[in-house]
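Standup notes
- HV: blocked on the assembly model, inputs below
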Amino acid sequence: MTVSVYVPSDSAATSVGANAVAKAIVAESTQRNLEIKLVRNGSRGLLWLEPLVEVATAEGRVGYGPVTAADVAALFDSDFLTGADNIFSVGLVDKIPWLADQQRVTFSRVGVIDPLDISDYEAHGGLVGLRVAIALDQSAIVDEVLASGLRGRGGAGFPAAIKWRTVMDASSDQKYVCCNADEGDSGTFADRMLMEGDPFTLIEGMTIAGIAGGATKGLIYIRSEYPDAITTMKAALLSAREYGLLGADVLGGGKTFDISIRVGAGSYVCGEETAMLESLEGKRGMVRAKPPIPALHGLFGAPTIVNNVLTLATVPMIMAQGAAAYQALGSDRSRGTQVFQLAGNIARGGIVERAFGISLHALVHTYGGGTSSGRPVRSVQVGGPLGAYFPASGLDVAMDYEALIAAGGMLGHGGIVVFDDSVDMAQQARFAMEFCAKESCGKCTSCRVGSVRGVEVIDKVMNNIDRTANLDLLTDLCDLMTYGSLCAMGGLTPMPVLSALREFPEDFQK
Amino acid sequence: MTIMRELDYGTPSKTADVTVAVEIDGHRVSVPVGTSVLRAASEAGIPVPKLCATDSLEPFGSCRLCLVEIDGKKGTPASCTTPCEDGMRVHTTSPKIDRLRRGVMELYISDHPLDCLTCPANGDCELQDMAGVVGLRDVRYGYAGENHLDAPTDDSNPYFSFDESKCIVCSRCVRACSEVQGTFALTIEGRGFNSKVSPGGLNFLESECVSCGACVQACPTSTLQEKAVIQLGMPTRTVLTTCAYCGVGCTFKAEMRGDELVRMVPYKDGGANEGHSCVKGRFAFGYASHPDRVLNPMIRESIADPWLEVTWDEAIGYAAKKLKAIQAKHGVDSIGGITSSRCTNEDVYVVQKLVRAAFGNNNVDTCARVCHSPTGYGLKQTFGTSAGTQDFKSVDEADVILVIGANPTEAHPVFGSRMKRRLRAGAKLIVIDPRRTDLVRSPHIEADYHLQLQPGTNVAVVNALAHVIFTEGLFDEAFVASRCNDESFAAWAEFINLPENSPESVAKQSGVPAEEMKGAARLYAAGPNSAIYYGLGVTEHSQGSTMVMGMANLAMLTGNVGRVGVGVNPLRGQNNVQGSCDMGSFPHEFTGYRHVSDDTVREQFETLWGRELQSAPGLRIPNMLDAAVVGSFRGIYIQGEDIAQSDPNTTHVTAALAAMELVIVQDLFINETAAFAHVFLPGTSFLEKDGTFTNAERRINRVRPIMASRTGKSEWEVTCDLAKALGYPMHYNNASEIMDEIAQITPTFAGVSFAKLDELGSIQWPCNAAHPEGTPTMHVGAFTRGEGRFIETPYVPTPERSTRRYPLLLTTGRSVSQYNVGAQTRRTANVVWQSEDFLDIHESDAELRGVVDGTWVELASRVGKTRLRARISERVPPGVVYTTFHFPVSGANVVTTEFSDWATNCPEYKVTAVEVRPTLEAGGVASAHELGLEELHTEVHEDATATLVRMANEITSNSTHLHQLAAIEAVSTHLRMFWTPQMIEDLTTYAQAHPEGLQDVALAALGQVPMAAVI
C-alpha cells in the first residue's frame, strides 16, 4: 500500500530545511524500494516542530519533528512509515494539545491538505460556501456575513459586510475586490501561511465577496518578500480557472469573477488600504485622504471591497457553516476567531487560532511556553510595530478588539511579539519612531517630519539632555502624530512609544 | 491699483443642485453638496489655516494645518478633505486644534531656513503667514536636527528657480503639474523625510517640464520662485490685462514695481484661462523691452537706402504724400492695407476705416486670410455666424472630443491642458491628424482613434464619417427635422449616400483603414455630447472652407450644436484673429460680417463716416500681391504683420513687395517685410496698448496699458494721423471711444463698452439687448441664420501632390515655446527650448535618403528650397515631413506654394510636395528678403491672370456636385461676393480670348455676373 508522507512546503518550514527533507525522503524511499506518496502540505503552525513530517496512518496523521535531511535515514530505519514511535515522534498531530484545543476555522485546512489540489480542497469542505453564495442573492450574502459579525482582520476591525453592502449599493460599470496581502507587521505571518497552505480558501472568499458586491475583478496585492506565496497563489489561480471556480461562469452559476496578482515593491505603508490602491494603480504608494472611502471610490475610482487575507479567507467557512456558528464564538463585539501569531523571543511560536477573548497570558505562556531564552518575559508587543507594549504584569488582558483598546492597545493583525528582561524599552520606543521614519510615505507633515524629530527627541532623553523638557516634547509630539496624522501609520506610531513611557518609565531615566 | 491678492478658498468650487447647510463657529453657511468644510469656512469669511490646499487643486490632506473639530465626529479631521454634511457643526479653533496646528508649524520650521527677511518671497509666503496665524513662538526641536537646509538650488530654467532647501513637500507643484497642466513632469522622489520634489530625476530644463508656471503659481513658499522676483523684488501693484500670444486669450495680473513689469501671474477669474498659463504668456514678455525694438519713425526713398529717423509728423506726412501720389497716378484702387490679428480690435477697426473711408476703396484684408478665413466662410454658410459655437469651459461637459488638424497642447497650451483634464476624467478622444500629436498618446491620455490621414484628404475623411453616421441611421433625426433646412438636408443626404463617400472608398484616398473611420464615426455619433475642435490643419488647405462645412454638417447631423458640451470650435491661432475678422477687415465685409454690397448697412457706415463707400469687394492679400507683381497695386500699409515670413511662397511675396512704390510697415521690430518698406512706423507692444482682444470663444477681453507707450503714440492714433494727413479727419480721445463707435454700428457688439467689460471682466459676443451679458453658447434653440444649412462637400483633391520629383508631403505647425514667426519669442529666453526649426522626418524616409538625425538637409519644392536640420521622428508617418516656421532663417515658406482654399484663398500651408536630401552646406537660407531679389527656381510663377483662371476653375470644381444651372448660379454668386470688379473684368477679357481655358460652368457663371451692377 502507498503511504502518504507530508512534508510542508510552507516557507517557514523550508527555511529550516523542509525541501531537503522532502528530497531525502523521496531518495530514501526509492533506494529502499518503498512506495510512498509525498504531499507538500502547508504548515500546521507549530513552528518549533518544523520541518514536521507527517505520515498518514489508520489512526490519523503521525508527526515527526523537527527533522533534518540527515535524520531521514534514521526515520526510515525506525519504521516511521507505519507511524511507529521514535525519538522524532510527536504522536498523532491532531492530538497535540497545542493544536487540539485551538478553534481552527480560517486555518482549518492549513497544513492538512495539499494546497494546490483542488479535489483535496473540496474533500475538506472547500467550495461549499461558494455554492451556497451562488444560490443566494447579493443582499442575502451580505446579510449572512453581517450576521456572522466578521470584522476586518487587517487591523481596523471594521465590519466586513458594511463595506460589502456599500459596494453592492454603488452603481458602477466596474467594481473590484482587492485583497490586502501586504503583510508587513513584524511578527505576523498568518496571511503568508494561509496563501501557501490553503490558497483556494482565499480565492473562494474573494469570489464570494465579488458576487456579493457585484465585482468581476479581484486583485491580490502580495508583498515581494513572499515569493513562495506568490508562486502558490499563481498556481492556484491557474487551477481555479481550469476548474471553473474563476472565469466567465463561476461554478456554472452564471457569475463572472477572476483574480490577478500584483506584487508590492517593499513599502510598509502600502499595507494601508488607500496606499495599496495607489500602488495597485501603478502609482507611488502614498496614502489617500478619506473620504472618499474605497468602497465608493477605490481602485481606479471604482467601488472596491478592500479586505485582508484573513477576512476573505474566513468567508467560505461562514457561508458553509452558517453565520450563527461563527457568531457563537468570541467575546463582546469581537465575534468568531482570531488567528494569533506568536513570535519574538518565544519558546513555542506559531499559529494559534482561538475565539476572541482568550487572555494574552494564555497565548504567551500556555501556548508560547514563555521565552525561548528562558529568561523572564518583560514585555509583549501586540498588534505589530504600531501596537502597544504590555508589561509582564499586564498579560491578563482579554484578546479582543474592545478589551485591547480599553487597555491602551490594539489587536492589529493579531501579531504577538515577546521580549525577555534584557529589552531596553527606551530603545524600543526609539525603534517605533525610527520605523515610522523609515516607512513613512512622506505625505503628511506629522509623520514625515514628526517621526524624524521623534527619534531625535528620544535620543536626547536617552542622553539626558533636557530630559524633562524633552519628555514633555515627546508627549506633545505623540499627541500631534496621533491626532494630526493622515493615516494609521503616523497615527499609531505613538502607541508603542507612549505604552513604553507609561509601563517602563525607568528605562527612560537611565 | 495696489497688488491684487485673490482669495484662495482652499478647494475647488463645486456645482450641484443640492445644497447643504453647515454651521461654522456659529455662522451658518449653505454650500453645494460636495463642498469641503475648508471652502465652506472660507466662503463664510472664516479662513482656516492651510498650506497644502489651494483652490486650483483637489484636496490632498497632507499639511494637517486645516484640522477642525466637528460635533459628533471623532478626532480632528482635515477640513480640506471633509465634505460638508447637512447640519454639521464645525469648530475651527479650540485649545486642542491650536496646539496641533502649532505642533505642525513647529515641525515645518524645524526644517526650514530662517531667512525670512532676505527671502525673495518675504511678504508673499504662505508658510510665513501660517507661522503668524498659528502663533508659533518657539521651535523646541531646535534647528540642529536632520534637515534639508543644504539642499541645492536648480537654476536651469531661465524663468524660475527651484530652491529645494525651502520646500515643505506639500506637493502643490506636483499636483499642479498633473492636475492643472497635465504634463506629469514633476513627482515626489524618495519617501518619508527624504521625500522631495523632483522633475523626474533630472533638472527642470532637461525634464519634461514645459515651463507653464503652474508649479510656481502653486508653490506656497519661495521654493519655486520667478527669477525676476529674486532679482527685482516683490511687485507692488497689479494691472489686469490679456495675453497677446495665441487665441486662448488668457487673463493675467501684470505685477509691477513702479513702471517695471516684474511678473505675469495668471488670473483665477480670467474667463479663458481660470488661473492657468503657458510658458509664453507667463514668462515670455521680455521682447517688449528688447533692444531690437524700434522706437522712432523712419523713412527712406528706396529700399536700397539706409533708414532715416524722422519725427512722427514727417513720417506721416511722407507716407500720405506718397499714397496720394500713387492714387493720383494709378487710380483709387491702387493702394490698400493689411490689419493684424496681433493688434487690438480698436487698432484694427481704425485701419479698415482708414482704407474704406480715407483710401476710398475696400482693399483691406487681415492676416486671418492666411489662417482662419475658411472658418468665417464655412460657419457662416452653415450656421450663420463666422465664429466658434462654445466657450472653452464647454469642453468640461464633452463626452467625445474630436480634434482635427489641431495640436492644442503645443499651439493652445492652456486650452490643451483643460482638454486633457477632461480626457483624464473619462471623455473619449478621436484625433484626425497626419501627425501623432501629444494628444494621441501622452501621460494618462490616449486617443480612442487616431485617423492618421494623408495630408490633403480631410474632406474625404469627414465625408466618410458622415456617410457612416447617415447610412447606419445613427443621426439625430429630431434635431435635423426641427433645426435644419429640409431641402438642404435632402440634397446633402443624397450626396453623402454616394458610394464615393463610403469609408471603403475613402480608405484608398486617405490611407485611413475603413474600420477605424467607422469606429470613430460611431463613437462621435454616440456622444451624447460630442464636440469638434479644430485648427489650421483644417483651414489651410485647398478645401479648407469645404472641410469647415463638412464638420458643421457632422455636428448638425448628430445634433451636436446649441448646448454646452458640443459644437464646432476653431482654435484661433493668434490673440485677436476672431476680433480682426469681427472688425470688418475682410475686403468684402463691414464689422459684424455684413457684406459691403448691402445698401442698408453701407449707407449706415456712409452716414457715420461721412464718406461714400464702395459697394464691391476689395482685394484679398494674395490678390494684392498678384496685382503688385503686374503693377496695378502700388502702395500698402501693413500693420503688425510680417508677410515676407508668414505668407506662402516667399519668393512671390518678396517680388510683390519689391515691386511696390510705397510699403508702410508698422511693427515693433524691423521684420522681414520691413526690409522692403519705405516708411517704418514703430508699434506698441501689448503692454502699452489700451483696448480689447477677442479670443477663440468670441470673448472680448480688456487689454490695459501697464506702461506708457514707448513710442509716444498708440497704434490707432498713428492710423488716425495718417487718415488726417490724407484729408480724412478721424479722431478719438481714447480707445474706449473707438469701441463705442464699433458698438454703435455693429449689432452683435451693441452692448459692448469698456465700462461694461470692466464690470463683467469679459463678454462673449453677441452682446446686445437680447444678450446683455453676452453669449457663451451660440445657436441655442435656433441657428443664427434660422435653419441650419447642410452643404454638400465633394472631395476635390488638391492639385498639389507628391510626384516622383517631390515624393514627400510637407506640413507645418508651431511648438509650445515659440510663436508663429517668432518675432517676440525669439527675443526671449524661450530660445533655450527651441532655437531653430527642425525638419521632422520618419526613419524610413530618412534611411532611404541617407539622412542622419541632427544633420543638415535641403528641403525643396517646385517653388523654392531651403535648408534645415533633420530630426528623425515617429510623430510623422512615412511620406510626410513636418517643420515649424518660427525662424526666418529656415525659410519654411520659401517652399510653400501659391495654392489656396478655393473659397477664401487661405493658403495651403499644410500640403507641399517636397524632396529632402542631405547637404553638406550648413545653415538655413539666411534672411528671406535676400532671396526675394533673385529667382530660386526654374519653374515660372503663375502670372496674375493665370491665378484668376485657376481660382475660377477651382471654385467651379467645388460646385460640380450641383446641377448645372445651380452650379452656374453658385459660381457667379461667389465671384460677385468675393472678387473685385477688376478681377472679374480681367478674367472676362481672358475668357473672350481663351474660352477653352475655363470650365464650361465657370464660363457661363462669368457671363452671369452683372458687370454693370458691380462696377
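- HV (later): unblocked. Chain A has a mean pLDDT of 97. The CA atoms of residues 78 and 84 of chain A lie 7 Å apart.
- Next: hand off to the docking folks.
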